[in-house]
Amino acid sequence: MKNHATDIIIIGGGLAGLVSAIHLSKAGLAVRLIEKNDYPKHKVCGEYVSNEVLPYLQQLGADPMTTGAKKINRFLLSTTRGKTIETNLPLGGFGVSRYTLDHFLLQKALQNNCTLIQNTVSDVQFENEMFRVLTKDGNELTARIVIGAFGKRSNIDVKLERDFIKNRSPFVAVKTHLKGDFPEDLVALHNFKGGYCGVSKVENGNLNVCYLANYKSFQQYRNIETFGQEVLCKNPHLKLIFENSVPAFEHPLTISQVSFSNKSTIENHMLMCGDAAGMIHPMCGNGMAMAIHSAKIASELIIDHFNKKISSRQELEATYSRMWNTTFKARITTGRILQPFFGKDGLTRAIMYGVKHIPAVLPAIIRHTHGKPLKLTTV
To answer: What is the pTM of this model?
Structure first.
């Protein structure tokens, strides 16, 4: 067993992990990023990012607009029967595939001397103010700080016996790319019975289609294609998209057990980031920005800790938990309140009726699930 010592280990190379790696390595800290999957890789994701994180990424030298990401400034909502309402997005956003964005961010991290380790973490132990991270191939790594950025569900969640992992979730998510016509500046949220589907363009001109459905209703159908025909296409807007597009993927991607339960921001002294710390419902369209924002919070506090502005681990953990909750708790709560109204035609039509009579309501809801533009304060 080989032992490798470093300042910081980041477990998980998604958005939160990669952005943390860029930020911390840019500050001169020795960072090892452990990711089990190869790059580049498609992921089940809405692939719309709020512009709130754009100034921050640009200051890190990782401007996603250089990847060809599509500028998005309009939002359209439809009921299961196809009635629509549209508004301008208060901040706007951009569309980019995870295939492209994750690989782009990885290159930036490597340019800043971050080390990538392609492996699976089997255990994380904490003793005498140091972490021991064990990998599947038998290697051992040690670090002063570990960031848990391993996504929605992981074998580490099971190992840590986190509360949310013990409960079954009623949701399944499906994502595919299509080739077809769709406005580049628009993100749409189309309801269908038992769920909702986000649609927007990404950097290569493909149309990202990603939906969340109730698993019980989903499993009544033979396959994804049948579910699409019998359920999604009851919404005339989704029917039009599917009938006038061709698949860009050989097969759609799926994930089950998508949990929106409360999660702890600190586990075994690890700072949890991104989906590992908590998820907002996809219909709020802000999960990717939240992951990036959480990486910023963690990175700036860790830098302060190494610079002795935060004197103890206890203070670091308490400050991170407080800042995470202050920043995201209201957004997540709003998402949970809104969730039951979607995928149910009567309730969605009631919302539509109210929004049409008070147009300011929809932008207000969007603002309540999004943040303000982020700027770098510590590097």
So the answer is: 0.92
Count CB-CB contacts under 10 A for residue 245. 18
Token pair recorded at residue 264 = 């702890």
Closest CA to 290 of 274, 276, 302: 274
Quick one: average pLDDT of 13-32?
A: 97
The residues, any chain, with a CB within 8 Å of residue 109's CB and separated by 6 or more, are: 18, 21, 22, 25, 31, 33, 116
Q: Which residue bears the tokens 């990424």?
A: 57
The two tokens of residue 345 are 């035609």
C-alpha distance across the termini of the chain, in Å: 34
**Is the distance from CB of 96 to CB of 69 less than 8 angstroms?**
yes
3-state secondary structure of 173: strand
Query: What's the CATH fold of domain 3-168+258-368?
Result: FAD/NAD(P)-binding domain (3.50.50)
Q: Which residue has the higher pLDDT, 27 or 3?
A: 27
Residue 8 has pLDDT above 80, yes or no: yes
- Per-residue confidence (pLDDT) for residue 118, from 0 to 100: 95
